[in-house]
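Predict the 3D structure for this chain.
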Amino acid sequence: MKRLVTLCALLGTLALSATASAATVHGQVSGTLLGVFGRTFAIQAAGSRMPVVQALAAAADSVTAGDYPYVYGGGHADAGVASIGIKGPGYNGRRIGFDCSGSVAAVLSQAGLWPVAAGVPNDAGVIAQLLAEHLIARGRGHGANEVTFYDDAGVHIFMDIDGRFFGTSDGGGGGNPNGGAGWLDDGAPDASSRTYKPYHLLAGVVERQTTLARVFTFQTAGHPALTHGLELGSVVHVAYTVTPDGRAVAQRVG
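Done. Predicted structure below.
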């Protein structure tokens, strides 16, 4: 099973302040409260300006480092926020993660191409929305810094970010054997299948500068009162621990 947040994410990609012990990682981060979802809550930390493709790659690094499992319907209620999803593969009513379109939307939202914490439709709906906003066009991308989405409408979606594939799988089971969200390292053979229709980011979008967002999801297990009285959109400071089984648990919120 994939873990919620890894030590790599804390010390490297996510650049959080953390100290490690033999059993538990301790860290702290500040950000804007996106929402409270049962026993979990999510915040968005401030990011930096960078080109869109660089932001997409960094967002994919962040989701991959988060080590989220595949959860049917995960990441749909609020883009970029891992969730328990709905009954289906990977669902147990407690585990949080992403499904295919939830993971793609998580990367898009962190890179500024989908509103953070907005709702996420299914794979075909994601493509339809990106087409409607004139962000993508049919066909594969070409040249440096290309980004292509591969969609089997109503079934599955994954993406190519500058020559590297990302998703919960490439449609053929590539990537993590548990199906969790992350980089796919098998060359994504289904990218050549006629079943998957390609759509590329337009050149004008690829050339943009954007602000990279960082979305963090915490559990409040054993501390349900931590989020009482907090207002959406307020800036909060979270001190947390990451347990050996990978759960990011808030200890103090202020």
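The first helix runs from residue 7 to 13.
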